[in-house]
Amino acid sequence: MQEQHDIYVHNSQLIDSIESDYKSNASVKRIYFYSKEGIEKISKYGIGLEDWNAIIINGERVILGYANETYVRKVVESYLYGSVHDIAIGKVTLSHTIVKIGEKINITVTVKNVGIENESFIKVSTYCNESLVGAQLVTSISPDQELSLMFYWDTTNQTQGKYSIRSEAEPVTNETNLVNNVYNDGLVEVTSSSSSNLVAMLTLALSFGFFETFSPCLIILLSFLLSYTLGSTPFFKESFLKVMTFGTGFLSATLFLAIAFGLVFLSMPTLQYSLTWAVCIFAGVFGFYLLGAFKIQSEKMPLQLKPLIRKLAGKYGITYVGLFLLGFIFYFLDPCIAPIFVSMLPLLSPETLFFNLSMFCVGAVIPFIGIGIFAGSISKLARSTYRHRSKIRAASGLILIGYALYLIIFHLLK
Question: Which of 62, 98, 138, 288 could form a disulfide bond with 293, CB atoms 3.0-4.6 angstroms apart?
Fold first, then answer.
């Protein structure tokens, strides 16, 4: 009985407070539970004999037991101000506000039920100016619940200019407050893809490809491998063809992984922002590693691979097909080679994928052409490259660090 008495005191004080705050807007009537009118209310609203502290609002909403003040006030206000049924677009978040033609924008729309009834089958639409970007159906949403919907706007067929993004929720039955059903998120600027930007991207892809292959670690191992497979080959043409066949296999492995990573990146637009951050972290860490900021003991591993390489060279290095397979396998055996092409992922789009990967391949094949030309003095080339290994590593490291900073400042933070 003490618990029931405490509920009675709390509910009575709450009713007094509401009556005082809303004055003539809220009429409060207390009914003795076992009176004739009380018995009628028990029957009408299906109230149990133990629920003598029940509160009934507007003849519709029955609140039993300990009444939550926030909820009661919300119910009262919903009846007073017509927000029993009320769907609102809480906010709209854009992944970018400045994009180039052909890029995609992720639009996150937050829908909230600010009424007091469960709602269902709500159509939410997002527009660019007056053109429909997309529409989604919310099948069910309870009071105070928020849902996030993702829309994608492809700017491929847009012209240069500024566009207004707007999201709308269709009114539900008996909804009267329609002001919060519409949310305008401001302007998005679509710029043209200038030729200078394209040239810069292709140049960067070329440099990534070059430093993917032009590694002192790789050239030292290649010196051993080619001296073993070429032997005393006297003809320049045959030496060059063998080097290029090996290089083609090596490049095929690189290209295989690059295309796989690129397609995964392009097929996951909702994660591209997070993946770009991951790429920046990778590029920065590996860049500092190449600058010598920290050491990894696995640098000595190539020397331990000689017996395995000798075995593979003796098995596969006789024919051109074997050399191709050896080059493909060799890419995965060299622990000094990091997949620098991963840093290219933010450069990729369906329209530029072919061009960037083509320039990457051109850059990657250049060192093999040089090695093929000087195959007769490959050991001398390896020694010369090794003497300048710190400068070569530093150059590639600075490119990666600068590229990571560029992405963070001009792409991610914007």
Answer: 288
